[in-house]
Design goal:
The active site is at 117 (pros-phosphohistidine intermediate). Major role in the synthesis of nucleoside triphosphates other than ATP. The ATP gamma phosphate is transferred to the NDP beta phosphate via a ping-pong mechanism, using a phosphorylated active-site intermediate. By secondary structure, this protein is of the alpha+beta class. It has seven helices and four strands, in the order E-H-H-E-H-H-E-H-H-E-H. The protein has helices spanning 12-16, 20-29, 44-50, 60-67, 82-90, 103-107, 122-132, and strands spanning 3-10, 33-40, 72-80, 116-118. It has a four-stranded antiparallel sheet with strand order 2-3-1-4. Bound molecules: 2'-deoxyadenosine-5'-diphosphate and magnesium ion. 2'-deoxyadenosine-5'-diphosphate (DAT) binds at residues 54, 59, 63, 93, 111-112, 114, 117, 120.
Length: 140
């Protein structure tokens, strides 16, 4: 399996509780390298673009509101099989279904406020990374 990159967001519920380092510890323990990272406040437009695939879902409005409610930390993670590896490290979308030791099991407050985002495929990872990072901000 080749070295791969995935896109991560430490969400507002986690930054509000000062959990950036705690989430990063799980990421690094999973064998993923943080090759780009910045703390930003997402605009409504950025959040709507980022989650456009969920536009028709009933939770879309509250999702955009939540993602713009406070600072987030956007990241690029690198490693073997990084997309799947980070999905495993995050755990299920619904924290009550997430496995022990995962970011969402440890830290998520609810299915909506679930502490972390990770890309679902290499193709979406490339699109998501390009939305938030220019090439020279990623240092592998
Ligand atoms: P994931 O973030 O695990 O990839 P997803 O892509 O299905 O999950 O949904 C994106 C985000 O939308 C998810 O992290 C939290 C929110 N969300 C999903 N399902 C929800 C629901 N039933 N109620 C409220 N928010 C939800
Ligand atoms: Mg998703």
């Amino acid at each position: 399996m080749a070295i791969e990159r995935t896109f991560s967001i430490i969400k507002p519920d986690a930054t509000a509780r000062n959990l950036t380092g705690a989430v990063n510890a799980v990421i690094e323990k999973a064998g993923l390298r943080i090759v780009a990272q910045k703390r930003i406040r997402m605009t409504k437009e950025q959040a709507e673009t980022f989650y456009a695939v969920h536009k028709a879902r009933p939770f879309f409005g509250e999702l955009v509101e939540f993602m713009t409610s406070g600072p987030v930390v956007v990241q690029v993670l690198e490693g073997e099989n990084a997309v799947a590896k980070y999905r495993d490290a995050m755990g299920a979308t619904d924290p009550s279904k997430a496995a022990d030791g995962t970011i969402r099991k440890l830290y998520a407050k609810s299915i909506g406020e679930n502490s972390a985002h990770g890309s679902d495929a290499p193709e979406t990872a490339a699109i998501e990374i390009a939305q938030f990072f220019s090439g020279n901000e990623i240092v592998g």
